[in-house]
Amino acid sequence: MILGRDARSTALALAAGGLPVMPLRADKGPFGNCPDCTGNACGGRPNMKTPGPCQCPRPCHGWAAATTDPAVLSSAPWEAAWRRAGAVAYHPGGAGVTVVDLDHAAAVDWARITLPPTRTVATTRGEHWIYSGTTRSVNHVRDGVDLKSTQSYVRWRGPGTGDMTALPDVVRALAARKPAVARPSARPVTVPAPAGGGRCPHRSPAYLERGIAMAEDRIANAASAVHATVYRTFLAVLSAHGRCGCLTETHIGRLFTAAQTRGESSRHCADAWSNAATALGM
């Protein structure tokens, strides 16, 4: 574990070598957005999907915070984060590389048979195979295999061993074969009108938009237990907006997309939404 000033020193050394870096919390998740950026109220990096660096002076917006700028890495807001950091992460896409994250021994065996040799880094349960070249980041391209490149971050575990080789076509094919995160064929939520038939109190577009944006942000920044976070977030959204007819297919699609970006399947999204609605008696 890299802590405090050691984390900052490691980050500065990596940044000097051209690796965009960022701090991770003690639980190895990214630091959550600061109060000014909560729910992406600042207008930056919605859902962490927009390429490019974060403009917030703090390490906000997940992967988008990663930087090679030593002035930023040593600034007062970042110093506060380094003091609480438990690890250093980097943005592989920003460094021009792709990490094939092999999560268990069977996945490593598959890689040794299927992929060309390249630089490898040992992890707690498997290995990272690092290739030169970028592709889109996709989780679960096969059992125990994730692709980390653009719009993603990877925990720094050392330089590894072996020479880095070019990203092979077999990895690009895995990224292309996995369908892009698609909006679900969800229907608008149909539930009884509020008691008394009064005007819906949530029909302010700004109020609803902020609620959906905060829900997207909560899912995007989940450090662990993503499936449980998705369910709780769906439950909160339905509790606040489900009974008044505010939610549209577009809103539901945004929530499903946020969940699928974190690796949830369309079926899990639909099940979580249905279970949340059932729990609320809808």
Would you give an account of this structure?
There is one protein chain. With 282 residues, the protein is α+β, with helices and mostly antiparallel strands. The strands form two sheets. Strands 3, 4, 5, 6, 7 and 9 form a six-stranded mixed beta sheet that branches. 37% of the residues lie in helices and 13% in strands. The model is unreliable at 179-199 (pLDDT under 50). The relative contact order is 0.13. The protein is built from nine helices and nine strands. The chain has helices at residues 4-16, 70-73, 76-84, 105-114, 169-177, 205-220, 226-241, 249-261, 266-279; strands at residues 21-24, 87-90, 97-102, 119-122, 127-132, 138-142, 145-148, 154-155, 165-166.
Provide the fold topology.
Blueprint: H1 4-16, E1 21-24, H2 70-73, H3 76-84, E2 87-90, E3 97-102, H4 105-114, E4 119-122, E5 127-132, E6 138-142, E7 145-148, E8 154-155, E9 165-166, H5 169-177, H6 205-220, H7 226-241, H8 249-261, H9 266-279
